[in-house]
Write a structure and sequence with these properties.
With 343 residues, the protein is mainly β. The chain is built from two helices and 24 strands. A four-stranded antiparallel beta sheet has the order 3-2-1-24, with no helix packed on it. A four-stranded antiparallel beta sheet has the order 4-5-6-7, with no helix packed on it.
Length: 343
């Protein structure tokens, strides 16, 4: 499935969402081979997004509206649900800055492929960095907040690579060939991503160093890993969705954690029966005590959180027709004095 066709499919039939990032499925599975041969240096740019350590702040996600996909935020206790974008086309793939003050996201405007945009946490101060000749996808902040890393696809040349730019959209630098959902570990030493083997249900979790070398396959392709995955704030675990990239008849998507070396695989959810009941991973909370996820139950969708061992499943947004996708838990800004966000 191409990146553009996936967006169109989810927009046309929102209730057929099959993974946390169905609207952001990448265009090809060529990344594994090119990443292995890449010698471009990423380390000089800082690190891309992971679960930044901190106090738990707002949760961001995108959801279907009457005007396309738009970005929402909600407190971890389910209060103050707000739509913060009102753009033409689709606003998707929100990612928090480390301090919880800014959100960078992808804007798929009508007649265009994809642009990177940045805004304040309440949706104000929006700035967009369009380039009509290419697609700019899946953006994220570096931890110091000085740069944005994003996936750039050139349809004319079929070239796709990871790039970076400053917060003004300038100083654009090609880093090297990319992959799906690149996410750098909190210590800045490893890059995690999802890549496929060309089969309909063949998708695996990989890591490499920041130069693209030392490639390591964390899971087998048979796990059919969904694109959205995340590092724990201490860098000791990765959370991902197994059997989540493409629907398999009779098989439910479930959430798992694994060590970056491929050991200690642990299923956190155990749903069965296919697409009627399944769960899709979002991200860790900044304090590392929770994992936020979407639960699907017979055509209804809810936002939930659970502890990293799978216990303590707690409702944030109850089951309804409201779908939360590409869920990212941000840090609480230091000036915020509220202490009841998790209550």
């Amino acid at each position: 499935m191409t990146r553009k066709s996936a967006i169109a499919t989810e927009h046309a039939i929102a209730l057929s969402v099959v993974d946390q990032t169905a609207s952001v499925h990448k265009r090809s599975n060529k990344f594994l081979s090119v990443l292995a041969s890449s010698a471009m240096v990423l380390a000089t740019l800082g690190t891309a997004h992971a679960a930044f350590p901190g106090r738990n702040g707002l949760i961001a996600f995108h959801s279907q509206t009457g005007a396309g996909f738009q970005i929402f935020t909600v407190r971890p206790n389910g209060r103050d649900l707000r739509q913060i974008t009102f753009l033409s086309g689709n606003a998707i793939d929100a990612d928090w800055s480390a301090d919880g003050r800014l959100i960078v996201f992808e804007h798929d405007a009508p007649g265009e492929c994809a642009n990177v945009a940045i805004m304040n946490a309440d949706g104000s101060g929006l700035i967009e960095f369009p380039d009509p000749t290419v697609c700019q996808l899946d953006p994220s902040f570096t931890p110091d907040g000085s740069r944005i890393v994003f996936d750039r696809f050139d349809p004319a040349t079929n070239d796709e690579a990871l790039w970076s730019m400053d917060l003004n959209g300038n100083d654009r630098q090609r880093i090297g060939h990319c992959c799906a959902d690149p996410t750098v570990s909190p210590d800045g030493k490893r890059l995690s991503f999802v890549s496929g083997n060309g089969q309909p249900t063949g998708s695996a979790l990989f890591t490499s160093n920041l130069e693209g070398g030392d490639l390591f396959q964390v899971t087998p392709f048979e796990f059919d890993v969904a694109i959205k995955q995340d590092w724990s704030p201490d860098g000791k675990q990765l959370v991902f969705t197994i059997d989540g990239d493409n629907p398999i008849p009779g098989v439910s998507a479930n959430i798992a954690t694994i060590r970056p070396d491929g050991t200690r695989l642990r299923l956190l959810t155990h749903y069965q029966g296919g697409r009627d009941v399944q769960a899709f991973a979002g991200s860790y909370s900044p304090d590392g005590r929770w994992i936020v996820f979407r639960l699907e139950d017979h055509g209804l969708f809810g936002l939930f959180k659970m502890h990293p061992d799978g216990s303590g499943v707690t409702t944030i947004l109850p089951l309804s027709s409201f779908i939360t996708s590409f869920i990212d838990w941000g840090s609480r800004p230091s000036e915020s004095g509220d202490d009841d966000w998790d209550q």
